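Ticket #4471: structure export looks truncated?
Reporter: QA, pipeline team
Priority: medium

Steps to reproduce: submit the single chain below to the structure queue and open the exported record.
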Amino acid sequence: MTEDAPQAPVNPYGETKRDFERLLADVGPRNGMEVVSLRYFNASGATDRLGEDHDPETHLIPNVLAAALGRGGALEVYGTDYPTADGTAVRDYVHVTDIADAHLRALDVRLDDGSAVAVNLGTGEGRSVREVVEAARRVTGRPVPTVERPRRPGDPPELVAAVGRAASVLGWRAAHSSLEEILGSAWRWHQAHPHGYRGG
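Actual output as written to the record:
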């Protein structure tokens, strides 16, 4: 998916991101500001100090790891009949440390025309839900029980970033975003913080 692909948000969250990016692209250059909008694909992974802890948790990787830890029951896999290689949805997972690096690089970008640019942050490679589950089993050495559910309305079969603009504008590419690195870092964080930021 390129930065120029048509945008058709299906919920208020997506609409807000699109509208804010448009607002910045309009207002920034008129006020002497260059604007670089970074479009994250599936931000994931952790550092030793920071990890994902949402309530309720909706992201795949923390839910896969919760299932490996025996918390919350089986992982719900939404949709197994997509037109993808294994029938499950495909997404582009990018490590949060790679995203942090892109932010630092964006601070130094100088646009020749003083305008605005949107940049995808992803790896350019998609991974299916089943691939993530299998990788989690390898990384954790534990079973990850799953249960199949129908597709969720509005979920596209595949979302993978075109990453050429990130390379040309930022001089950036994801360097720590293999599934093993993402899952390994998140697994270490979840083991060290079994109750998330609530402690205990």
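Status: closed, not a bug. The export was complete when the record was re-opened. Leaving a note from the reviewer for reference: Helices lie at 12-30, 60-68, 96-107, 129-140, 164-170, 179-192.
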